[in-house]
């Protein structure tokens, strides 16, 4: 945004690069690529922080085209429902994200067998978190996350208790005295 400190820094950097690539000097792309590499090497922690923030940003979805006051969906209107909608939407995203991470941790010894789930997702994150990230860029990787999350949730013993054959038989309606 014009006038911001970031914009002023960007203009200054552009001017520095323009001097180096003025006619008869170095190639713009070579100078720019070297400038990016130097910037990352000199600001490692800032680069990692930006990478982490972009990665996290890619997991949260927000409706920016409507102000909270003008929000309307299925008969629910206003600021309160705007925030409730986003809370629920992103709660689902957080559950999927955490369950996916649990999958990767639990299956770490068998990760090569599951490469089709995590390699596409990793490539999406590496590319977009390095360059520029928006939640919509993660949509193609969301299917991988959902599959990993579903596998994790389906195998959670505290949610789906594994029963022995005798327990399962005694819990069925037919064996519990309930007849059709």
What oligomeric assembly is this protein in?
A: single chain
- The proportion of residues forming helix, as a percent range, comes to 55-70%
Residue fraction in strands: under 5%
Strand order of the largest sheet: 1-2
Report low-confidence residues grouped into runs of 5 or more: none
Specify the structural class. Answer: mainly alpha
Task: Provide an overview of this structure.
The chain contains seven helices and two strands; from the N terminus they run αααββαααα. The chain is mostly helical and about 180 residues long. Strands 1-2 form a two-stranded antiparallel sheet. A hairpin with a 2-residue loop joins β1 and β2 (about 75). About 10% of the residues are buried. The model has no long low-confidence stretch (mean pLDDT about 80).
């Amino acid at each position: 945004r014009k006038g911001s400190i970031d914009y002023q820094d960007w203009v200054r950097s552009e001017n520095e690069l323009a001097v180096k690539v003025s006619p008869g000097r170095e190639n713009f792309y070579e100078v720019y690529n070297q400038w990016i590499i130097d910037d990352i090497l000199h600001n490692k922690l800032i680069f990692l922080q930006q990478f982490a923030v972009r990665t996290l940003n890619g997991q949260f979805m927000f409706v920016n085209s409507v102000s909270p006051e003008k929000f309307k969906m299925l008969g629910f209107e206003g600021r309160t429902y705007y925030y409730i909608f986003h809370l629920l939407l992103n709660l689902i995203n957080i559950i999927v994200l955490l369950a996916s991470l649990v999958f990767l941790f639990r299956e770490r010894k068998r990760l090569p067998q599951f490469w089709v789930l995590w390699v596409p997702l990793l490539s999406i994150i590496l590319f977009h978190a390095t360059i520029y990230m928006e939640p919509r860029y993660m949509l193609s990787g969301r299917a991988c996350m959902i599959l990993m999350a579903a596998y994790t949730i389906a195998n959670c013993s505290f949610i789906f208790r594994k029963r022995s054959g005798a327990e399962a038989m005694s819990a069925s309606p037919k064996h519990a005295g309930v007849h059709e």
